C-alpha cells in the first residue's frame, strides 16, 4: 500500500468540518486533521491577498487520490481549490495497518 497525505485549505470551520466528515464517512480517508485558522498569503490575479483559512490534512492511500480530488472539487467553495498530495515513505507498521483497514472498502466500492 502506498500512503499519501493530501493538503487542502478551506474558507471556514463549517466547510472544514463538513469536508473532513464527508471524506472519513465515505472511507476515502482514515483521518482528517483540521488546523486553523491559519493565515495564507497568496497571489490571486495581479493582487496579493491575505486570508484566514483552515488547513485539512487528509491521510489516505495513493489509489484514493482521484476520488478524493473529485470529492473536494465537488464540495469546495473556491474556484481553484488547493489539492496537493505528498507520498509517505515510512509508516509505523501498526499505523500502516490501521490506515489500510480504515480506507479498504472505499477502493473496493469505487
Describe the protein:
- With 110 residues, the chain is of the alpha+beta class.
- The protein has a single domain (3-104), classed as Alpha-Beta Plaits.
- It contains three helices and four strands.
- It has helices at 13-25, 65-75, 93-109, and strands spanning 3-10, 31-44, 47-61, 84-88.
- The chain has a four-stranded antiparallel β-sheet with strand order 2-3-1-4.
- The longest helix is centred in the last third of the chain and has 17 residues, at 93-109.
- The two termini are 17 Å apart.
- The relative contact order is 0.29.
Short description:
This protein is of the alpha+beta class and 110 residues long. The protein is built from 3 helices and 4 strands. The protein is elongated and about 45 Å long.
